[in-house]
Design brief:
Elements: H1 6-34, H2 37-45, H3 54-57, H4 62-67, H5 71-85, H6 91-99, H7 126-153, H8 160-185, H9 188-204, H10 213-241, H11 247-270, H12 278-293, H13 309-313, E1 319-323, E2 326-328, H14 333-343
Antiparallel strand pairs: 1-2
Helix pairs in contact: 1-2, 1-8, 1-10, 6-14, 7-10, 7-11, 7-12, 8-10, 9-10, 9-12
Length: 345
């Protein structure tokens, strides 16, 4: 995402998610055909070795290189990309790139930043700390609710394999809804609306009589749809909140927290043995609280990616202008705008 311009981020994020759903559907098909857990594990594990080939052909992020003062390496990556795309980069772009490189104010204006960042930088300043905790909580909630509701699809009447495949196919509709709303209304409103919808629909199952199981199933499906929409938007939204210098660490940290939600999900589902609607009520409360919490983090639509901790700390203070590579922000605006133009060639 760091090598894309603002206008391409949403499309890239949603296309990646479509491939993820393709994996869900493929998993159901393979499981249906094999019916053996060992063969299934081999079928889904061996293809992963293909990813080892990516190291040799993948570009380093020029935005990350520029944010860390490594302009020579950034220029090599940009020249390589320009050659593949058969375009020429004007020398003026490189001059602007050198002029707008981030400097370390602690060591002087002529020494490029060589600081080594760590995970503590995610919580070192007030706004970054708040954003990190809320994003981590959102990943935890969405993962727990998503997998908790997904596990329930196999318990529906009918063939469990077919139910899983069909429920995975419904994810495509959730992606289309997320795609249609993200660039129109921003990142926050669709996520908040989807989580609150999921919370209310899951919580409403507590008042449905046992003999109206179809109503409970319908409410659960609406809840899963809401969680799916939020889950589709969240990775892109999170990447736009964390600054370039710690973006990998930020996404890695919240993803680790999300795994805890995935571990918790089946245990919450077991609570249904004592009271059937209890798991849905728990997931509903979590989703509703998450939707309210997201109200406090900044909108990122139309805002250049933050590169430094300072820019991320001031992210909520910028005025959003929905035009490509143009935004009114804090005094670091010019640096970020140059990085957007260079890395989206």
């Amino acid at each position: 995402m760091e090598v894309l311009g603002q206008s391409k981020r949403t499309m890239y994020g949603m296309v990646v998610t479509l491939f993820l759903v393709g994996g869900y559907i493929g998993l159901g098909v393979i499981a249906y055909l094999t019916r053996d857990w060992m063969k299934l594990q081999l079928a889904i594990s061996v293809p992963v070795t293909v990813f080892l080939t990516y190291y040799w052909i993948a570009f380093e992020s020029p935005r990350w290189l520029l944010a860390n003062g490594r302009t020579v390496e950034a220029r090599e990556v940009i020249d390589r990309a320009a050659k593949i795309n058969k375009v020429e980069i004007p020398e003026k772009v490189y001059e602007l790139m050198n002029e707008n490189i981030h400097f370390n104010e602690d060591v002087g204006p002529y020494e490029t930043t060589q600081r080594v960042y760590n995970v503590l930088d995610l919580v070192r300043t007030p706004n970054m700390r708040k954003n990190t905790f809320i994003v981590a909580f959102s990943w935890f909630v969405c993962t727990a609710a998503y997998y908790g509701l997904s596990l329930g699809s196999a318990e529906l009447p009918g063939d469990p394999y077919l139910n899983y495949i069909l429920s995975s196919c419904t994810e495509i509709f959730a992606i289309l809804v997320a795609w249609a709303t993200m660039d129109r209304w921003g990142r926050k409103p669709p996520v908040i609306a989807a989580l609150i919808l999921a919370g209310l629909s899951c919580g409403a199952t507590a008042g449905v009589p046992k003999d109206l199981w179809m109503v409970s199933t319908g409410l659960a499906m609406v809840g899963r749809f809401g969680v799916s929409v939020a889950f589709d938007i969240l990775p892109l939204y999170s990447a736009e909140i964390f600054p370039t210098v710690v973006r990998n660490m930020g996404i890695g940290a919240v993803s680790m927290v999300a795994r805890a939600g995935g571990i918790l999900a089946p245990f919450v589902s077991l609570l249904g043995k004592s009271w059937a609607p209890l798991p849905l009520v728990i997931f509903g409360i979590m989703c509703f609280l998450d939707g309210v919490a997201i109200l406090t983090i900044p909108e990122t639509l139309g805002v250049p990616l933050p590169d430094t901790l300072e820019e991320a700390e001031n992210l909520g203070n910028c005025r959003i202008v929905q035009t490509v590579d143009k935004v009114v922000t804090v005094p670091t605006e010019e640096k970020t705008e140059i990085l957007d133009k260079v890395t989206s060639v």
